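User: Some background: our group keeps a shared notebook of sequences we're curious about, and every so often someone picks one and asks for a predicted structure to add to the entry. Today it's my turn. The entry only has the sequence so far, pasted here. Could you supply the structure so I can complete it?
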Amino acid sequence: MRTLLLASAFIAALVGSSAIPVPVPVPAPYHAFCRTLWLFATPCAEVSATILGQIQAYDPLIGCENCQYALVSTTARSIKANHTSPDGLQAEDITITFNPTVMTAGCRVTAQSTSLGFTSLLDNGLNYCNLYNLLSASGLTSSPGFMEMTNEWACLGYGLATCKA
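Assistant: Of course. Here's the predicted structure to add to the notebook entry:
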């Protein structure tokens, strides 16, 4: 056993002293974020089209004054958008992914909003409200089988959120 430990230490020293630089991971800055899971007893194509329609209705480039959502990209299984605060000082990336459920022919949706700037991790529910307000405005919160699952670990500031749709 002692020989194995010495051999391991020797190999580690050789690798550590080599002329090849070893990349050191740089810690990323902390950003406020929210991840949530929504369940629907509605097919994903319908849920996706409804959310996409709401983002487009809120898109200032399409003619919505004082709206802060902008569509970035869309595929059959995901939507990416940006949200900007009314004062233009805060911006968040939004990603929504759709996965069909087999048993109910419904849809499992994962949604995430992440602040782009370096901010306090406690955002008073801003990222949660970005997601919830979009969903609420689309009418999907009263859709058959709707259920939301998140908590303070997955969605920083969730307990402090006071969303105004």
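Suggested note for the entry: The helical segments are 2-16, 44-57, 126-138. The first strand starts at residue 33 and ends at 40.
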